[in-house]
Amino acid sequence: MKPRLRALPPLLLLLSSLLATACSQDGGTSQPAPKKAPPATHLVAAGEVSRAPLPYASTRTGTLRTRRQVRLFNQEEGRIIELPFYEGDRVEQGAVLARLDDALLRAELERAVATRAQAEQDLKRLRRLVERQMVSEDEVSRAATAVEVARAEEALLRTRLGYMVIRAPFAGVVSARLVEPGDAVPRHTHLLTLIDPGSLVTEVSVSELLLPHLALGQKVRVLIDALGREAHAGHISRIYPQVDASTRLGTVEITIEPVPPGARAGQLARVTLEIPALTTLSIPLTALQQDRGSEYVFRLDDENVAHRAEVRTGTRLGARVSILEGLDAGARVVTKGFLGLKDGMSVEPVGETP
């Protein structure tokens, strides 16, 4: 048994040597390094800067209001004794809208009439006496002046008496009733508001760049949300002379004729303005970018390198926007693929945007 045990160690040493040699051969085998992937190409879509006639149609929102409206005030103080009409009532021109108690003024007028009559009698008597040289010319002159004063006082009271009745200056509808019969009102109190429902207009804001292309009488389409989807005829009745300095927007007044049934002041109106085709330099609207208040595009050169270019834009014309400064006709600009795009980056156009 002892010799067998002594023979085992050399055998184990041989096996260990063979295993070590195999491990060293496996560990020494070198694997080829993986190749680096080529950088990905930045794909974009491009569009052309073109000068061509472009049709323009734009919808602006406004609020209907009555062009003809009057707030009625009393010019004499007094107690209201008659106020026959309420909100929504139609009245004819000249109809009595309000009447104030005029008893005091009538009494003053009667006294003024008597004073004027007495002054006229005194003047006649003095003129007969002056012919007999029984009175002086000065007395006759003072009597004539008294007659003129009495007549003026009478005319004044008649005018004030006329103010006690307030009539409709035009045919229309009462839109506000602010007092009631029996109220004692001081002078210049707002009593009623009268509107002409047949004079509905709306005002919309328009870019200063479009104002030169609009004209009085130009036809427009008006959609009133409360009346459904039917478009109504209208025309430009007024173009305001000033432009807002902060927004660069002007105001255009639109008159609706004829006024559709159911149209009322205060309703929302959508006005569609259409002007002839404008020949202008433009780019696809998707090409325009904004950054800290400035507008810019990425212009492509002949080698498809993108360069940031500041621009000044004008009117939005459908899917395009007019260019006032910064680009020339025929240039190409990036319209899609802005994510990760930087100034000076090489790109590959894969599509064109009309």
TrEMBL record:
One GO cellular component, as annotated: efflux pump complex
InterPro entries tied to this protein: Beta-barrel_RND_2, MdtA-like_BSH, RND_pump_MFP, YknX-like_C
Every CusB-like beta-barrel domain range: 203-273
UniProt-listed PROSITE patterns: PROKAR_LIPOPROTEIN
Residues annotated as domain Multidrug resistance protein MdtA-like barrel-sandwich hybrid: 68-186
Keywords from the named record: Coiled coil, Signal
TM segment ranges: none
Domain YknX-like C-terminal permuted SH3-like: 281-348
GO-annotated molecular function: efflux transmembrane transporter activity
Keyword Coiled coil applies: yes
Signal peptide: 1-22
NCBIfam families: RND_mfp (TIGR01730)
Family: Belongs to the membrane fusion protein (MFP) (TC 8.A.1) family.
Protein name: Membrane fusion protein (Multidrug efflux system)
